[in-house]
Design a protein that fits this description.
The chain is an alpha/beta fold and 92 residues long. It has four helices and three strands, in the order βαβααβα. The longest helix has 13 residues.
Length: 92
């Protein structure tokens, strides 16, 4: 994507960016991120399922890329997202 187009783009994602993706997003000049599930939600769900913390420090996007506007989580999707994570954790 051409650099001059990036500031007009919005990235839509099911989960909040990890620190590496947040940094990459900011470095290439993309602007807005819209996500359905947050890092905080995922951390709470993993804990409730008795799972250890994930392998990457659970930081919100703006802790890494402070100037990036974000929208999320989509609270109306929380139950569905949690169910997906529970199924994934239960899979062999």
């Amino acid at each position: 994507m051409a650099p001059e187009v990036r500031p007009d783009c919005t990235v839509y994602t099911s989960g909040e960016h990890c620190p590496m993706c947040s940094a990459g997003h900011a470095w290439v000049g993309l602007v807005r991120i819209v996500y359905a599930g947050s890092t905080a939600q995922l951390t709470q769900w993993r804990e409730a399922m008795g799972l250890p913390p994930g392998p990457v420090l659970a930081l919100p996007i703006n802790a890494v890329a402070s100037g990036v506007p974000v929208a999320g989580p989509a609270l109306e999707l929380a139950d569905e997202l949690r169910a997906l994570h529970e199924r994934s954790a239960a899979a062999p």
